[in-house]
Amino acid sequence: MVAMSKALFNSKRKALFKSKKAMGLLALAVGYIMMVDINMQQRSRVLRDHADVFRDLITIDQGGGECDIGDPTQDGNPTDDDATKTLLVSYPGSGKRFTWTIIKALTNAEVADDWNFSQKLYESPLTIKTSWPHKEGVWSWGKQMDQVLLLIRNPRKAIPSYHNMRWELDYADDWASSYLRIPNTYQDRPGLAAWESWRDEHFDSEMEIWSEIIDFWMQGGWVEKEQRINSRCTTSEIECKPKAVVDFDHFYQSSMTNEFRKISTVLESSTNVEVIAAQARVCVIDSVFGRSDLHQGGRTHPDRPALYGFTFFQFDKMMNHTM
Q: Which of 46, 53, 128, 250 is deepest in the core (most CB within 10 A)?
């Protein structure tokens, strides 16, 4: 009788243990689903905010050199099929967001990004921005683009700017992980220790890639390691050699510069592309530059970029690549 009672007790205890274990696993699963759901809700909210601020921009020429870039509440105009469309390319962290916004403000045409976070990649955009062939870029536009505009930024600024985004994405190495961390972007800047650790591990490779991207586009898609032109440039109906090369460090100002004129000239010479009147263009760049939310987001610690330095030997290598 005692033996039977013990067996019954042990049987119930095992059943209770299995039940608790199952409940624990269920709680973990529910917790994970809730965490992902909250993250996705945050991501959707941020994407809506980005949509409001970064791509929904409409400009009105008020005459006499005055303009109004408007409340960012309207989408740009889809581009005609026979219009000349421009691919905006650069190493990551080289000012594509600011340039992209300027092009939108000058033309009122739709713009998009290669990863389609803008949700406008397949809405006949006039311009698509990409870091391809860098690993952060992807050739997703097929044959939509006709010509190239190349942005170049001093690696002294471009590499730290690229690291800032990598840090905000928690150094994600796949699209899904990056996708979930979008709510963290354009919010903060890394501390000096985080920058220096990443810099010392990645500087040599990023400096090489910075140079290779410029060489690739300047030579019309030439891949030095393979001694051939990339097939994308021969089968996608695009002229890979840039129509203009823009020095972002001289372009990123509130006044009219030669670099700004290069962009205006490319757009004006593009078939079936309307550009705002010349007298209103100073107003456009001044208005966009003054709206840091359109290109800088809400990052804290604005003093930190000046602290992101390089070692003597890194500066020496940088000089060898840029001179």
A: 128
